[in-house]
Amino acid sequence: MKRTATALLALLWIAAVGAASADAATTDKNDIRMENQQPTAAWDKTFPKSNRVDHEKVTFTNRYGITLTADLYRPKEAAGKLPALAVAGPFGAVKEQSSGLYAQRMAELGFLTIAFDPSFTGESGGTPRYVASPDINTEDFSAAVDFLSLRDDADPERIGIIGICGWGGLAINAAAIDTRIKATVASTMYDMTRVTARGYFDSMDADARHELRRQLSAQRTEDARNGSYARAGGVVDPLPDDAPQFVKDYYDYYKTPRGYHPRSLNSNDGWNRTSALSFLNLPILAYSDEIRSAVLIVHGERAHSRYFGEDAFERLTGDNKELLIVPGASHTDLYDRSDIIPFDRIAAFFRLRLTPEAH
Question: Smallest Cα–Cα separation from 162: which of 327, 300, 356, 343?
Fold first, then answer.
């Protein structure tokens, strides 16, 4: 089925490339003026709290002066300097969802971890709200490394990162620029710049990209006139009967008690529509073949996005790169299915690669 550029934009920027009609776009009149609120003290995650780790809220500032808020998880009764991990994703989610689950589980397995809200989203700062940037969001990972490097209970020589979904591609991009990152896991990854500029399976041609640029440019004028930013809309709701299976999977995670969160873009009104502009113009994996640190790419066998991970793996070089395909798993199974996510394999990868001998 052929789609207009506007409909394609909705496909690319809803639910980390979910699907909805662009007609569902909304405008928040307070988008430009919204400032970060105080982080909540309550446990408001989509997963139960573990009694095996200590938890606290922390903040740190990135190189653009944006204050990021994170949940820190530390193994109970841990001593000395621990290997440390920074976790983010999925694209359009918040730390109370999948990234927090990953961070808490990895803390149970012996790591000091943080799950952070990216710039402009969740409890982190930055205005206008609900914007994504391949540059700033890559910097968010490096800012997390700054924070972990200075902690007394973290070993600055044993820091790794985990990126989920669209943040998997951004994690690989961060590994290409930041040599302090000694090991990287990209789980159920998207390359958000590729899918924005080329569409699924590279089906988008130059004429379609031009039309998309034209519509986004017109949207900028409209936003400037309105003094606010139109939102793309979150995961389509109600779910159409003929929705593709991967859209049904996104709905099942973001729009049901399984994964819904009131601060999640995907669970609610989605991204600022013009966020896609920079992703159209800035490919993120241009230097991934020069990464010398270890990388593990994890993907589901049945994931519609599997080709992103496999193609990214093909670009990597060296004998410290691994690709793990999880049998029977879909894209969203690797968001929160603790019985499917290979946490033990991920932990073993970090234990091996976050040693002085591996650097």
Answer: 343
Write down how long the chain is: 359
Before 83, cis peptide (omega within 30)?
no
Q: Amino acid identity of 183?
A: A
Alpha-carbon 274 to chain mean position = 18
Q: Bridge-partner residues for 300, per DSSP?
A: 326
- Among candidate residues 321, 331, 247, 336, the one with its CA nearest the CA of residue 291: 321
The burial of 355, by beta-carbon neighbours within 10 Å (0-12 exposed, 13-18 middle, 19 or more buried), is given as: middle
CB 255 within 8 Å of CB 237:
yes
**Selection from 303, 313, 296 nearest residue 335 by Cα:** 303
> Which tens digit of pLDDT belongs to each residue from 95-142?
999 999 999 999 999 999 999 999 999 999 999 999 999 999 999 999
DSSP readout, 172-208? HHHHHH-TT--EEEEES---HHHHHHH-GGG---HHH
Q: Which amino acid is at 192?
A: M
Find the DSSP H helices in the chain. Answer: 5-13, 98-108, 134-149, 166-177, 192-198, 206-226, 245-254, 276-281, 306-315, 333-336, 343-353
Largest Cα–Cα separation, the chain: 59
Global pTM value: 0.92
Superfamily the domain 5-358 falls into: Alpha/Beta hydrolase fold, catalytic domain (3.40.50.1820)
Whose CA is closest to 285, among 313, 318, 319, 323?
313
Q: What is the CA radius of gyration of the chain?
A: 19
What is the predicted pLDDT for the residue at 13?
54
Give DSSP secondary structure letters for 288-323.
Answer: GGG--SEEEEEEETT-TTHHHHHHHHHH--SSSEEE
Whether residue 232 contacts residue 271, with contact meaning beta carbons closer than 8 Å, is answered with: yes
Judge whether residue 30 has pLDDT over 50.
no
